[in-house]
Amino acid sequence: MPQTPITDYSFKKWGAIKIEETDEVEPYYYWILPIPIDENIPDRPTLVSTTNDEWKIMEINKGQYLVTLFDTLPMLETEEEVELLYKILTKENLTK
């Protein structure tokens, strides 16, 4: 099975939502991917990425992200893991 790192391109391909914020030092952003992506259901589960600057403190390359569904679940590291979890939860493909 391929092991494609999660990048900005991944989130754009999936139609994820980019959340931009600013702390005391500088702006940063992260991505959210509601499940299911195409339906507006209140309180639906949402995949959340690490921020674009967290690669500095984590063991990932610049431009890569990790994604989680809940704080208690392991971080997903590849596009394939995200797409598989999405398919398990929705019975639909994330990429159309």
Annotate the secondary structure layout.
Layout lengths: L7 H7 L2 E6 L4 E8 L11 E4 L17 E2 L10 H12 L6
Antiparallel strand pairs: 1-2, 2-3, 3-4
Shape: globular
Give the helices and strands as they follow along the chain. Answer: HEEEEH
The number of helical runs is 2
Strand order of the largest sheet: 1-2-3-4
Q: Give the domain tally.
A: 1
The percent range for helix content is: 10-25%
Number of strands: 4
What integer is the average pLDDT? 91
| Structural class determined from secondary elements | alpha+beta
Strand percent estimate = 15-25%
**Largest sheet, strands/sense/barrel:** 4 strands, antiparallel
Radius of gyration, whole Å: 13 Å
Q: Enumerate the spans where pLDDT stays under 50 for 5 or more consecutive residues.
A: none
- How far do the termini sit from each other? 19 Å
Structure, described:
There is one protein chain. The protein is about 20% helix and about 20% strand. It has one domain (about 10-20, about 25-90). It has helices spanning about 10-15, 80-90, and strands at about 15-20, 25-35, 45-50, 65-70. A four-stranded antiparallel beta sheet has the order 1-2-3-4, with helices on one face. By secondary structure, the chain is of the alpha+beta class. The protein contains two helices and four strands, in the order αββββα.
